[in-house]
Sequence to fold (253 residues):
Amino acid sequence: MNIHFPEADKRRYDESLSRVRRYVPAFSSILRRNGTDRVRDLRGLRSGLLDTGKLAEAVQGVENIYRQERTVRADRMAVCILVDESGSMDGEKIQAARDTAILLNEALSTVRNVDLYIYGHTTENGSFVKLNAYREGRLRTDRYALGSIEADWSNIDSRAIREAAARVRARTREKCLFFVISDGAPCEPTRNVKEAVRELSRDGFSFVSIGIDFEYDPSEMYDNHVSMTDLSTLAPELGKMIKKAIIENSNRK
Fold:
């Protein structure tokens, strides 16, 4: 395993951001609702704001006609994004992967209590796995490094997933939402990927695969997956998968 820290590429970062900027608020909202701070609407209280739906009761002298909004602070959580940078991702696929990673990076920058980890992976001449570390938790890094996401050689997904998870666990024990962005064509049996995902799911990782023209059936590797065909519809679909992944992970404990 070779760990690499890519150089910044501001021009390509800004190009990607120009394509995805309008989707950032929707993704921020989706990510904020799943695992971070939540606002609860409490009704039937004796003090607070008047509940306009209880005006009739107010006239009758009923006391519990008030409501309050309270923010429930969630525990700190981690989010890991792993991007497939293999040769099969060349062209439009790697651009879509870069755009998606930058979109998630921008969206998560507005969400409290989240430590963000972003990696890319390929192999060095097909011999060993190269993991590109673009962002690692609270360690200050240049966000423009994500502009360097590029297709390279081949991919051994199971080893990259395990290594990225190990680097997250070396820094935090918090629950982790783990996104895998790929075309679903690992250079290994799909069962290897499935085994890595199931093993790490028992250690607090909730996996969601974001597929770009999947080569294989994603259900052979991931229980939760969405297809990245249209960014305008990806946010609500992703929200459903995030909620499902987190619930499934909680039920395992």
